[in-house]
Write a structure and sequence with these properties.
heterodimer, A: 194 residues, alpha+beta, 60s Ribosomal Protein L30, Chain: A, 7-stranded mixed sheet, 3 helices, 20% helix, B: 212 residues, 7 strands, 17% helix, globular
């Protein structure tokens, strides 16, 4: 069963200057959101396969939307994250079904490689609820310059029987990182951590 | 100081695009696409009363053109595909509403020029190249970071076309800070997704005066 999508929203946030200083190159973060019907709204279902399949589908679709919006090649993606807001006729486990079993694999194909865990957030919410999508470097979770978050929100969603699904991809870290930690140049990219 | 020349401290460019497939009615064959682009700049007048603001409108002109082009890119649309538009401003807490009003001319004319409008549109022009004839509807407010604003949209050649009377909510997380202004342009590629309230239709535009 494929996702019944009502609306897609894509945002790109580019920071060129901060605190009076140029950001070179500018940092760019994209977040793509899909508003979908929740096929399990209003019922307790033991089997969540329908939502797991939707997660697999949206990992590819929303990942590709982010990469296209940034105008980059997949290997230029640096960090990523994912999140879902479940409308009130659903349950938090519906977000887990979309986000965790299969979304990561299809997302990683869109951004190339991706040894690191895709950080995630989930919540129940109503129309216009915002969720902060955590961001981490896609190949090494300990890269400190890329710990970040980007807000996802759709003004008229989720309705009670809908879910807002968001994926964020960047081609950069924070604008002026200077708190040390593992640097991009030190990434080994094998174990997902360093 | 910036790529725009002049003294504008451009901090962020934020683009927002929507593809609306339906709103619980029959999905049209082509989804509605619309979007907005926002420039977050440092408000050079924050924290004080400056009597003469008008010169800054000149400085904002390149920003109007740049933002319009950025929005067309984000929508992946040719200028001819744009059917509706609007503009807005959110002024941070250390500014005043009049700082938002600075956007009327550079934002409106920047967007209209990028959509085919020419200063000396010949009388009797019927669409391109006399495109973007209608006044650009607008809203403005003073607000804090993450304040949302509803940007009105109307048909770009005739304000009275009822199917294109629309609105898009725009909000930039984290902006505007007290000493910032967020200047906004919005465009749509079609009418409301399930428009069905009659009134003047696009094919009935006859006067080409920007209204009907």
């Amino acid at each position: 069963m494929s996702a019944a999508i009502r609306k897609l929203v894509v945002q790109v946030d580019e920071t060129l200057r901060d605190m009076g200083r140029p950001v070179e190159p500018p940092t760019r973060r994209a977040v793509a959101m899909a508003v979908i019907a929740n096929p399990l709204a209003g019922q307790y279902a033991e089997n969540l396969d329908a939502l797991i399949a939707i997660g697999e589908e949206l990992g590819a679709l929303l990942g590709a939307k982010c990469v296209a919006a940034l105008g980059i090649r997949p290997e230029q993606a640096q960090s990523y994250g994912k999140a879902a807001i479940v409308g009130e006729a659903g349950e938090l486990e519906h977000a887990a079904a979309i986000l965790h079993p299969k979304m990561g694999a299809t997302l990683r194909r869109e951004v190339s490689h991706g040894a690191a865990l895709v950080p995630s957030a989930k919540k129940m919410g109503g129309l216009g609820s915002a969720i902060d999508v955590p961001l981490g470097h896609k190949d090494a979770a300990f890269v400190r310059s890329h710990f970040d978050a980007i807000e996802a929100r759709v003004a008229d969603a989720p309705r009670a029987n809908e879910i807002v699904v968001a994926i964020a991809v960047t081609d950069s870290g924070r604008p002026h990182p200077r708190v040390g930690g593992l640097a991009v140049t030190e990434i080994k990219g094998q174990d997902g951590l360093r | 100081m910036s790529e725009l020349g002049g003294t504008i401290d451009l901090k962020r460019i934020f683009t927002h695009t929507e593809e609306i497939r339906h709103e619980f009615g029959p999905p049209p064959s082509v989804p509605l696409r619309r979007g907005a682009a926002v420039a977050v700049i440092v408000n050079p007048f924050a924290g004080r009363y400056v009597a003469d603001l008008a010169p800054f409108m000149e400085e904002l002109k390149p920003l109007g053109l740049k933002l319009a082009r950025r929005l067309l890119d984000a929508l992946d649309a040719m200028p001819e595909a744009i059917q509706g538009y609007g503009k807005a401003a959110i002024v941070g807490a250390a500014g005043e509403l009049e700082h938002g009003a600075l956007w009327h001319a550079p934002g409106g004319y920047g967007m209209r020029e990028s959509l085919g409008w020419q200063e000396n549109t010949p009388p009797g022009a019927t669409g391109q190249p006399g495109n973007a004839l209608a006044i650009v509807p607008s809203t403005k407010k003073v607000g804090g970071p993450g304040t949302s604003i509803d940007v009105p949209l109307t048909h770009l050649n005739a304000s009275y076309v009822r199917s294109h009377l629309d609105c898009i909510e725009v909000r930039v997380p984290g902006a505007p800070a007290a000493n910032e202004v967020a200047y906004i342009l919005a465009m749509s590629l079609g009418p409301r997704i399930h428009q069905r309230l009659g009134g003047m239709r696009v094919e009935q535009i006859a006067r080409w005066d920007g209204q009907k």
